[in-house]
Automatic annotation (TrEMBL):
Pfam family, one: zf-RVT
UniProt cross-references to PANTHER family, sorted A to Z: REVERSE TRANSCRIPTASE ZINC-BINDING DOMAIN-CONTAINING PROTEIN-RELATED-RELATED, RNA-DIRECTED DNA POLYMERASE
Reverse transcriptase zinc-binding domain boundaries: 1-45
Protein name: Reverse transcriptase zinc-binding domain-containing protein
Source organism phylogeny: Eukaryota, Viridiplantae, Streptophyta, Embryophyta, Tracheophyta
Species per Swiss-Prot/TrEMBL record: Davidia involucrata
Superkingdom classification of source: Eukaryota
Amino acid sequence: KNRLATKDKVLSWGIPANPTCLLCNREEESSNHLFFSCPFSASVWKQNMKKCLITRRPLPWHLELQWASTSLKGNCFISRWRRLALAASVYCLWQERNSRLWRNDRQNINQVMHHIERTVQMKTTNWRKVPNQFQNWEASMHWNLNRDIFKNN
């Protein structure tokens, strides 16, 4: 569900606000713009997709969510890891947006990507018994995940 209080929603509630996106300062902020259309977030998402070994272009927000809900089902390592990376991206972009709004504190794209990487690394530290398969190892190397997550063979 689209529950985030983006500027387009705040304005629709009759609350005065500058509608401009805080990440790019170019267009009106909406969920779709904030997470995928904004040049700042699009760059973050493209880097994230590359690290997730996803070779297609980013989709609009609603299609990205639809793709994730159908393509990232199941409990296998790759699906869990990609869901986590998607959630970490949304979380860190929203956090960056709020940091700019409330504290006038800005990070560049590399700093946001580093925050996403650290979030994924921290969330996977307790994962165990991941099968020792090439695709799992390859994925873990892109994110520098702890090798203790893998089964001992």
